[in-house]
Amino acid sequence: MFCRMVSSLLSGKLAGEEIPMAGEYINIGKITNTQGNRGAVRVLPLTDYPERFRQAGRVRVSIKGSIREFNIEEAYHHKKFVVLKFKEIQDMNAAGELKGGLLVVSRDDLMPLPADSFYIFDLMGINVFDLSSGCLGKITDIIQTGSNDVYVVETGGKPVLIPALKQVVKEIDITGRRMVVELPEGLVD
């Protein structure tokens, strides 16, 4: 079992900056700057599916407490960014007003995940229970290591690091906010 990153929740932070979810919306990108002088914006993707920007016809931007919709005229990848040109934005000054804005989607617009995959923001705060010792605590962070994710579970004492592996994680119930694990011997003192 593993999780996919989308939205603001790579541990709730982006380069040390707290980025909350925008109400019922989920963050999928952050406008970091303008690109060129024709009104394009540079977007840092906060999703495992950056191709979604090229496929979308419209996008919502959360800026200064409100949500605005824009029609995508052009989208392309540039280094680690996605560059978007909105039909409604004609120059660099207008694009500059969107700097710091978050591209958001509703839960209904999330990309479907493969079986046994979960969005990080759905796992954050979930209660973790060990088959032998009962309640361990809540997931407070997820470390992405490359080979497998590691769940950081706050126990009230020293945090427990639980590898996100099928032989360890036995059940995840997102609706019930519950994860059942079978910890390897010696993982917890």
Question: What does this entry look like structurally?
Answer:
By secondary structure, the protein is mostly beta strands. The chain has two domains: 2-110, RimM (Elongation Factor Tu (Ef-tu), domain 3, Beta Barrel); 125-181, SH3 type barrels. The protein has helices at residues 52-55, 92-96, 120-123; strands at 2-4, 13-14, 17-18, 25-35, 40-45, 58-63, 66-78, 81-86, 102-106, 117-119, 127-130, 134-144, 149-154, 160-163, 169-173, 178-181. The chain has a six-stranded antiparallel beta barrel with strand order 4-5-8-7-6-9. Strand 4 (25-35) and strand 5 (40-45) form a beta hairpin. The two termini are 25 Å apart.
Outline of the structure:
With 189 residues, this protein is mainly β. The chain has helices at 52-55, 92-96, 120-123, and strands at residues 2-4, 13-14, 17-18, 25-35, 40-45, 58-63, 66-78, 81-86, 102-106, 117-119, 127-130, 134-144, 149-154, 160-163, 169-173, 178-181.
Features:
189 residues; mainly beta; Elongation Factor Tu (Ef-tu), domain 3; SH3 type barrels; 2 domains; six-stranded mixed β-sheet; 3 helices; disordered N terminus
Structural class: mainly beta
Number of domains: 2
Number of strands: 16
List unreliable stretches of 5+ residues: 1-22
Please indicate the percent range of residues in DSSP E strands (runs of 2 or more). over 45%
Query: What is the number of helical segments per DSSP (H or I, 4+ residues)?
Result: 3
Which descriptor suits the 3D outline? elongated
The description of the largest β-sheet is: 6 strands, antiparallel, barrel
Largest sheet, spatial ordering of strands: 4-5-8-7-6-9
Radius of gyration: 19 Å
